[in-house]
Amino acid sequence: MPVKNRIADLQPEIAAWRRDFHAHPELRFDLPRTTARVAALLRDFGVDEVTEGVGQSGIVAVIKGRSTASGRVVGFRADMDALPITEATGLDYASETAGRMHACGHDGHTAILLGAARYLAETRNFDGTVVLVFQPAEEGGGGARAMVKDGLMKRWNIQEIYGLHNMPTLPVGAFAIKPGPLLAASDFFEITVRGKGGHGAMPHMATDTTLGAAAIVMALQQIVARQVPALGAAVLSVTGIQTDTMAHNVIPDSARLTGTARFLDKEVQAMVVRRMEEIIAATASAYGCSADFNYMHGVNVTENAEANTEHAIAAARAVAGEALVRTDIEPLMGGEDFSEMLQVRPGAFIFLGNGDSAGLHHPEYDFNDEAIPAGCSWFATLAEQRMPLDA
Ligand SMILES: [Zn+2]
Ligand SMILES: [Zn+2]
Asked: Distance, CA 318 to ligand 2 centroid (Å)?
């Protein structure tokens, strides 16, 4: 049972939806055109139910199998939002809006789930219910959490949930996955170092906040290098530094640092945050300054449940064949807010090959339409395998 023939036949149509989304990217929760198109297509396919406005602008659709006697309900999720990037692909379906671009392939994910919906609504070769989840605001904004808070899992009785993300460099038609942590918890921080500004020529009359901030940047790097165990994955990046004047001859009253921290393990995360607090306070004090530390938790670790990972692998093998399904990949330190759905229901997230494309979030990136049949077939096969008619 490789790529489904019916889905292969639909590929040009699904690719056309994808290119339409690509030309009209929308950001965060503000997705009026995208959601209108998704809801209209779902209604055209004859799905059993379409609910709009879940978690502000998410869409939930229901497709019942030929039988629902099993009582099983499987959720499938796609993300719909784009990024604040100006596209540089030069494609004839490139973004029509400067400063907005589908640079993470969510146009492809949405089109793939629509393609699977069309096939499943047509064939209904399963015993149970498929719930399709189209979420807003994956790229910051907490769209997954908003849908969960709006009762996604309980209102539609979702028992397990699956999603996919395209992956540049992985061959088209191939899949990659692992059980356990797949993507990192992704947090953000801001530090404001405060002191007494003054003349750049008379530092002895001031407390040098710029020097204190620089010392904090250096001191924070000992945490991952010397305090996190070698196999306890963590990233701590101070990515921005700014003073309140940026003048050549002024020692500023305050200097600001921004950055991100990534983890695969909650204990490592707690230890790093505690050490950051201690090191920031002590280092600021050593330079005669004080510091405000604002640490913001972003998304959780994307944690694939063991059993659901096996189900995801079985469907991927059925579609792509054994050789094109990697099950032993390293976790990535990027974050993904599907993690918020996996916090409340077991499930799995899989990577789908995007071939030799520019990287995710790059202005020359484009989703590969040749990956559509494998992606749609994976969802469709998963529905049929998890809820077989003749069980
Ligand atoms: Zn992204
Ligand atoms: Zn993405």
From this structure: 25
- CATH code for residues 185-299: 3.30.70.360
275 three-class SS: helix
Tell me the pTM: 0.92
Residue 296's alpha-carbon distances to 142, 191, 244, in angstroms, are 13, 11, 22
Question: If you measure from the C-alpha of residue 352 to the centroid of ligand 1, how many angstroms do you get, rounded to a whole number?
Answer: 14
Residue 252 has pLDDT above 80, yes or no: yes
Q: Give residue 82 CA to ligand 2 midpoint distance, Å.
A: 9
What spacing in Å lies between the alpha carbon of 205 and ligand 2's midpoint? 50
Instruction: For residue 219, report the distance from its CA to the centre of ligand 1, in Å.
Output: 30
Q: Strand ranges (DSSP E) for 126-233?
A: 129-135, 160-167, 175-176, 180-183, 185-194, 198-199
**Beta carbons within 8 Å of 115's beta carbon, 6+ residues apart:** 7, 10, 11, 14, 17, 372, 375, 376
Can you tell me the distance from the alpha carbon of 127 to that of 317, in angstroms, rounded to the nearest whole number? 22
> For 41, how many CA atoms within 13 A lie in the half-sphere containing its CB?
27
Kindly give the distance from the C-alpha atom of residue 279 to the centroid of ligand 1, in angstroms, as a whole number: 32
Please state, for a pLDDT cut of 70, what percent of the chain lies above it: 99
Average pLDDT, whole number, for the chain? 97
Per-residue pLDDT reduced to its tens digit, 66-86: 999 999 999 999 999 999 999
* DSSP per residue, 363-388: TT----GGGHHHHHHHHHHHHHHHS-
pLDDT tens digits for 134-192?
Answer: 999 999 899 999 999 999 999 999 999 999 999 999 999 999 999 999 999 999 999 99
Residue 140 C-alpha to ligand 1 middle, in angstroms? Answer: 9
Q: Which CATH number fits domain 5-180+302-386: 3.40.1090.10, 1.10.10.1100, 3.90.1150.10, 3.40.630.10?
A: 3.40.630.10
Q: Ligand 2 centre from 106 Cα, in Å? A: 6
Residue 390: pLDDT band with limits 50, 70, 90: confident
- State the ligand closest to the CA atom of 108: 2
